[in-house]
């Protein structure tokens, strides 16, 4: 089929399903996907005004872990990470110039002494900034103290700016924003009463962005602000979980006004000990806890790690499929957000005779090139690996070639040239060069010749070793691979600037199936083993539930889902990716993480109309009449306890079989296997959920033969 006729084919069927089922021409390949983390200020402002949108990340004092705090390089590094907001601190010199400095004193962060207010700009510019957060032992750098104007010019059009310590200087700060053309980027903040705030905001055009800072001692200002000045966001500060400011009554009041809630996880007294430090050990107890409490903006000293965590809460980009390859001991996962792919991976290694790693991939035929930048890699082992791969099959012992970054051993070009080859017992199957995180890696296939490269900027490339002869099938799997090289630990790797380009590209289409206007062929229900409810149906409830509620052997819950496939997808279509996406709305009776397996359903079942989380005695599927399931887990995910997180299951092979007629489409089931005997059921949005965007979806990307 020609490109023109395929385009007509797609357009001719898009209208059938309106906005709910969209068929999208991706042009030069689902394979042609290029990603970037850059966001425009317009996009950030739209996100800020959407309280139901993604959690926004505030980088406290820029990337001070790698550069001096409040420095221009630190600000740029935070922008490059993909943060939404950069926090800066503002002081005024003796000659009236606004500069970036957290303390009123110069002593901690520079080689100077005395107060900022007692020095001229020229005197301050003669000083050097110390590394990180400074202090007497911190090394001096060549960086100088930036002016507010210099900082705003750097951030112009790139990021929103939290203007801390600036309320008393607000008029002069506003003048700087006007002179630099950044009026729509600066966020003013205070705990001032409504009358003061409203009058000042009204005096400026355009009206400035504003954050109200609220703790228990001034919680009384909230009602007046909600109806008066109407801040864009509310920064809540609390040192106890029982503080009124974080109680549901106050949080819901703000959320119901469609305003974002900002919480700081910098140190214990700001968020009742739910801190960055704790989040690095258990992100569910820190960042996850504040999200469950309603946070939609989080200020952190660990921007990269928070972004990784948030990336993993989002579904993969359409056209990509996730899979654990080999006998990994811990379940991996992956997600995509703002141009970044993040993989959470265990695995012994990509080496020996059988690999263990997490893979995010696309099927491709013929010659192909894949490029990516490795933004982050956890140092779970000096030989942990993250990079790009071309693989003949998804079996653990498959032929492959890859270019991978390691924490301690540079960048390697690896290959297995025959199926099952034990690389530990051979030589000549890898080449390495110095390098690491933040570098680009590239792998090129031309016929049966594979060549690996690395680059600092994605423009000038260094070849790694020599081109290698590696006979492979024309059809291969191309993507991003990561292993922790530590079977007992999950490691995080993040990539951006990902591009797959095929020498003979083909057109693909993506279909997103979700219950709503124009599509009514989705069905779901959960069934309950517990004897009191085993005959009940839940098909009409807005949630479906999986995993045990009480944590007892007789209390399993299975969730069944089915999507009718539209006739617009040809039966001979080649499915390149099929993702089942479900959204966690909450948990009941416990917070333990639980692994959910996906299996094929082998018999017909009826959704039914039963309502209530424990169902009703009406017709439809129940535990007592449940259908038979396949015995093999097709995919699995560990479900945590933080609401509004997406979980993606790979159903590519199953959807292909449904389309081709090899199997009847009775849907899939989600269940614990083995059952974890700890309380806590996971509640997901069903096809009856009020917010259509949160309902389950089946996202199918395909091409024609």
TrEMBL record:
<feature type="domain" description="GP-PDE">
    <location>
        <begin position="55"/>
        <end position="310"/>
    </location>
</feature>
<dbReference type="InterPro" id="IPR030395">
    <property type="entry name" value="GP_PDE_dom"/>
</dbReference>
<dbReference type="InterPro" id="IPR032160">
    <property type="entry name" value="DUF4996"/>
</dbReference>
<dbReference type="Pfam" id="PF24517">
    <property type="entry name" value="CBM96"/>
</dbReference>
<protein>
    <submittedName>
        <fullName>DNRLRE domain-containing protein</fullName>
    </submittedName>
</protein>
<dbReference type="InterPro" id="IPR017946">
    <property type="entry name" value="PLC-like_Pdiesterase_TIM-brl"/>
</dbReference>
<dbReference type="InterPro" id="IPR055372">
    <property type="entry name" value="CBM96"/>
</dbReference>
<keyword id="KW-0964">Secreted</keyword>
<keyword id="KW-0732">Signal</keyword>
<dbReference type="Pfam" id="PF03009">
    <property type="entry name" value="GDPD"/>
</dbReference>
<dbReference type="Pfam" id="PF16387">
    <property type="entry name" value="DUF4996"/>
</dbReference>
């Amino acid at each position: 089929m020609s490109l023109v006729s395929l385009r007509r084919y797609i357009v001719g069927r898009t209208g059938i399903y309106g906005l709910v089922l969209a068929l999208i021409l991706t042009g030069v390949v689902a394979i042609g996907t290029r990603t970037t983390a850059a966001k425009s200020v317009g996009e950030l402002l739209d996100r800020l005004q959407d309280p139901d949108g993604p959690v926004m990340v505030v980088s406290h004092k820029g990337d001070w872990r790698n550069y001096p705090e409040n420095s221009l390089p630190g600000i740029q590094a935070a922008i490059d990470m993909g943060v939404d907001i950069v926090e800066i601190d503002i002081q005024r010199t003796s000659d009236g110039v606004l500069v970036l400095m957290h303390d009123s004193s110069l002593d901690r962060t520079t080689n100077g002494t005395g107060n900022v207010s007692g020095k001229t700009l020229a005197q301050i510019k003669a000083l050097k900034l110390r590394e990180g957060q400074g202090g007497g032992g911190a090394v001096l750098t060549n960086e100088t103290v930036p002016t507010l104007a210099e900082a705003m010019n750097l951030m112009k059009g790139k990021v929103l700016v939290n203007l801390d310590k600036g309320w008393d200087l607000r008029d002069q700060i506003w003048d700087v924003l006007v002179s630099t053309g950044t009026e729509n980027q600066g966020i003013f903040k205070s705990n001032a009463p409504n009358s003061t705030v409203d009058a000042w905001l009204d005096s400026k055009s355009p009206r400035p962005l504003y954050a109200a800072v609220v703790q228990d001692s001034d919680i009384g200002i909230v009602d007046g602000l909600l109806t008066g000045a109407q801040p864009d966001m509310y920064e809540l500060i609390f040192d106890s979980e029982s503080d009124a400011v974080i109680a549901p009554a106050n949080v819901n009041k703000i959320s119901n006004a469609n305003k974002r809630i900002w919480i700081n996880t910098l140190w214990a007294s700001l968020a009742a000990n739910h801190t960055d430090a704790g989040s690095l050990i258990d992100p569910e107890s820190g960042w996850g806890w504040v999200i469950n409490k309603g946070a939609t903006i989080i200020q952190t000293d660990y921007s990269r790690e928070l972004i990784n965590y948030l990336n993993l809460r989002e579904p993969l980009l359409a056209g990509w499929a996730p899979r654990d390859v080999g006998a990994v001991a811990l379940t991996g996962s992956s997600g995509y957000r703002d141009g970044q792919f993040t993989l959470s991976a265990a695995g012994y290694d990509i080496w020996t005779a059988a690999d263990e790693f997490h893979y995010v991939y696309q099927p491709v035929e013929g010659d192909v090139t894949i490029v990516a930048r490795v933004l982050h890699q956890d140092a779970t082992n000096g030989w942990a690996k993250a990079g790009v791969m071309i693989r003949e099959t998804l079996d653990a012992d498959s032929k492959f070639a890859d270019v991978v970054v390691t924490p301690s051993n540079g960048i390697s070009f690896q290959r297995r040239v025959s199926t099952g080859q034990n690389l530990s017992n051979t030589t000549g199957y890898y080449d390495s060069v110095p390098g690491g995180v933040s570098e680009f890696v590239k792998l090129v296939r031309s016929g049966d010749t594979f060549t690996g490269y690395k680059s600092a900027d994605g423009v000038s490339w260094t070849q790694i070793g020599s081109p290698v002869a590696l006979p492979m099938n024309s059809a291969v799997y191309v993507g991003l691979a990561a292993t922790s090289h530590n079977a007992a630990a999950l490691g995080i790797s993040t990539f951006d600037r990902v591009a797959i380009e095929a020498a003979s590209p083909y057109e693909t289409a993506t279909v997103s199936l979700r219950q709503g206007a124009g599509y009514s062929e989705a069905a779901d229900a959960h069934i309950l083993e517990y004897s009191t409810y085993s005959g009940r149906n839940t098909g009409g409830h807005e949630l479906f539930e999986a995993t045990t509620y009480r944590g007892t052997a007789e209390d399993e819950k299975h969730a069944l889902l089915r999507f009718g496939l539209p006739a617009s997808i040809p039966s001979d279509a080649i499915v390149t990716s099929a993702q089942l996406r479900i959204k966690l709305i909450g948990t009941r009776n416990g917070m333990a993480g639980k692994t959910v397996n996906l299996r094929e359903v082998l018999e017909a079942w009826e959704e039914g109309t039963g309502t209530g989380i424990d169902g009703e005695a009406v017709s439809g599927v129940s535990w007592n009449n449940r259908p038979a399931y396949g015995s093999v887990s097709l995919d699995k995910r560990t479900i945590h306890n933080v609401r509004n997180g997406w979980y993606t299951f790979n159903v590519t092979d199953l959807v292909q079989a449904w389309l081709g007629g090899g199997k009847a489409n009775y849907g899939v089931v989600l269940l614990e296997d083995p059952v974890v005997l700890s309380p806590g059921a996971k509640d997901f949005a069903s096809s009856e959920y009020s917010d259509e965007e949160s309902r389950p979806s089946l996202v199918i990307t395909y091409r024609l033969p």
